């Protein structure tokens, strides 16, 4: 995703939001306009950014840990396929548990501090990364594996030097899916129990019917999600030079009419 595309998409979303408010004219405590949301942010920028920094810290640590555990799990399953047959069902069961059920338990186990929010974010990030990278490791081209089998390379050498590099495009796809989900994990953890963070701000503002402040906090989270996605794209742009992405053409050349 390019920066210009991100700005264009966000601008279009804000325009649709503003047009909806102008057309439906709902009370501001139900749906504030983008202007009212901006005024709520400008009324208390230091307060919102201070809590935003807390949430961002939880997001970044959880994103790093979730990605690390996801990559390690997928790699371990590929390295020990017999054990992997038992591990994947465990991973699926963990992913199937509702986050709103896990969040109170994590607060109970890790306390009201940063640890429970990082744990919640790590769990949400873990599955898409592990699933995408594991799928990439399993889908190595059979012709390449046949060629590797003709050499003296061991199972470990084939995994590290051939299968893992070829699975990097799948890992990048998993990271792209996971990055925008990271704010969700941190905020869900803050909703359950916290004394700081944007989730805490939203709970407090919602109780006071300060919907514009709730939307201002959500706007900051949206910015975090877009920036995280752009950051993943930038950091992984040069990792797979053999599998560069191409911009899809709007229309096939063959369908163009000659004048």
Automatic annotation (TrEMBL):
ABC transmembrane type-1 domain: residues covered: 52-232
Pfam families, A to Z: BPD_transp_1
Source superkingdom: Bacteria
Recorded topology in the membrane: Multi-pass membrane protein
Transmembrane residue ranges: 59-80, 87-112, 118-137, 181-201, 213-232
Signal peptide annotation: none
UniProt xrefs under InterPro entries: MetI-like (IPR000515), MetI-like_sf (IPR035906)
Keyword 4Fe-4S in record: no
Keyword entries, A-Z: Cell membrane, Membrane, Transmembrane, Transmembrane helix, Transport
Cell compartments where the protein resides: Cell membrane
Chief localization: membrane
Family, similarity comment: Belongs to the binding-protein-dependent transport system permease family.
Protein name in UniProt: Hydroxymethylpyrimidine transport system permease protein
Source organism of this protein record: Pararhizobium capsulatum DSM 1112
Organism taxonomic ancestry: Bacteria, Pseudomonadati, Pseudomonadota, Alphaproteobacteria, Hyphomicrobiales
